[in-house]
Amino acid sequence: MNIFVLVKRTFDTEEKIVVSGGKIQEDGAEFIINPYDEYAIEEAIQKRDALGGKVTVVTIGGEDAEKQLRTALAMGADEAVLINTEDDLDELDQYSSAYILSEYLKDKEADLILAGNVAIDGGSGQVGPRLADLLGINYVTTVTSLEIDGTNVKIVRDIEGDSEVLETSLPLLVTAQQGLNEPRYPSLPGIMKAKKKPLEELELDDLDIDEDDVEVKVETVEIYLPPQKAAGRVLEGDLSAQVKELVNLLHSEAKVI
Amino acid sequence: MNAMNFDLTAEQGMLQKMIREFSDEVVASGAIERDKNKAFPVEIFKQLSDMGIMGLPFPEEYGGAGADTISFAIVTEELSRTCASTGITYSAHISLGGAPLHLFGTEKQKEKYLTPICTGESFGAFGLTEPNAGSDAGGTETTASLENGEFVINGSKVFITNASYAKHLALTAITDRNGNNKEISAIIVPTDAQGFTIKSEYEKMGLNASNTTELILENVRVPEENLLGVRGNGFKQFLTTLDGGRIGIAAMAVGIAQGALNKAVQYAKERKQFGKTLSQFQATQFKLADMEVKIQLARTFVYKAAWLKDQGRPFGKEAAIAKYYASEMAMEVCDEAIQIHGGYGYMKEYEVERYLRDAKLLEIGEGTSEVQKMVIARHIL
């Protein structure tokens, strides 16, 4: 099994987002592997351990993303690839990310590609499906169970509060939903070995990609924080008075009825 | 070129993140109950064994991970931050149980005794303290007399951490007398040896989920080859061992204090009095600032002592400074954390009272604060 996992470096979920000058400030912020990608890495490791083969984790980003790749190697991935666009590109979007990944993966003969369901920063959930389309392979999103038997694959996927069972075949791209597995803590020997595992760094040139080919199609108009939530109000008095006041407030203050 | 550098290495950073998550997600839950029920955290240590943490600083050939002392300090701090009983169990396992075998054991002894410690099959323990002897080795009364190629050991040890869960441990005993001088040696003794009784009946102030035992040895026989290190060097070897152990105790102190500060910060932001949160009162802010200062200073010095050890340089004075300062500041920080919590701080549910009870041991174990000051003074006089 030749397995690839798409990984994204994202803000720590505990991190406070600060917007300044129309940009999210990254100084001093902690970064993590996108939590949904951790399910993808865990699943890849389990499938490799059961079926043999190799797990390669791939990310697009800058030098800093090496830390997240090393963590994936410490969890048990075999190799890592950093497609470094720091010098070539100012911006990436779903289109350009999928295109770059497809150029990298097109001759790799991947049996299985795993990604997170969404990244917790952009939250588009598009890169996986777009990539599968560019590679011309099957894809299934939000999977919570993955069974592989030869080239046949049985999948359970999450469909907003219910499950869907379906069958498909390799080569395949799936995106991981919470519940697929319980990602392991990297072991200490894993951490100590991570540095010695191969980490290949590529630039757009190495993939024969012209900067014009990956010009973003999404324009960011504005970045702002959600409005501060005001403290809730507790209505008082007997029940009928409270109901009356609530209706009144919904009409005159919230203007929803 | 060696330049000043306060950054953790990539491995240390990854380990810190991993063990911090583990501590929050696994160790923290149940800490109140374990304290109450004196329940040893067996399951937590099973997981730590699977994660390869139990043999952290020891060579890979014995099943260790070959990590450094700073990594050991990081793990000890993070475990202690949510459960100091788990922290001391780990610290003693590595620095008192494993370290003397690693430092003074023969190839054969390491294979036989260090390997199960690295895999977590056996906990590490160390038998030094006696009813009349701790830092004063002269008071040692346990004897080991050589008879037909066997040491016959008689005596007792007190306050020994982890022994109920150890398959073997090293202990000090008098192997000869020269007038008034006692020749003290270290000997490895299997805990299932005939005549070896281990009791854990202490009623302690804190660290209730850790295992503290009394050892009674009545004609316990072990082969002469169980001598650890050089005959007559037993006490000197254990002083070296304690230098490393003090880094562990100091790291525990930093962890407990950090845990107490985190609780105090959280509470101060939530608790309202006189229409404001406690955190809006300067009286609270000054307390929290003082706590932060103390913790930062202590941690920096723990890392320095650990770094010196990793460089193979003398670190005895720095380990004593770290242990003395960190353990005293931990008591102060825990005390203030309770004060910020007011009446709730006196209640077990809010955990800071446990932090204080647990922290007290750090001013006592592996050399009291006063002994640390003796060590420090000896270095500057």
TrEMBL record, chain A:
Coiled-coil stretches noted in the UniProt entry, renumbered to this chain: none
InterPro entries, per database record: ET-Flavoprotein_bsu_CS, ETF_a/b_N, ETF_b, ETF_beta_N, Rossmann-like_a/b/a_fold
CDD domains noted in UniProt: ETF_beta
Keywords for this protein: Electron transport, Transport
Required co-factors: AMP
Domain Electron transfer flavoprotein alpha/beta-subunit N-terminal: 21-211
Keyword Transport: yes
Origin: domain of life: Bacteria
Keyword set includes Transport: yes
Family, similarity comment: Belongs to the ETF beta-subunit/FixA family.
Function in brief: The electron transfer flavoprotein serves as a specific electron acceptor for other dehydrogenases. It transfers the electrons to the main respiratory chain via ETF-ubiquinone oxidoreductase (ETF dehydrogenase).
Subunit and partners: Heterodimer of an alpha and a beta subunit.
Protein name per its UniProtKB record: Electron transfer flavoprotein subunit beta
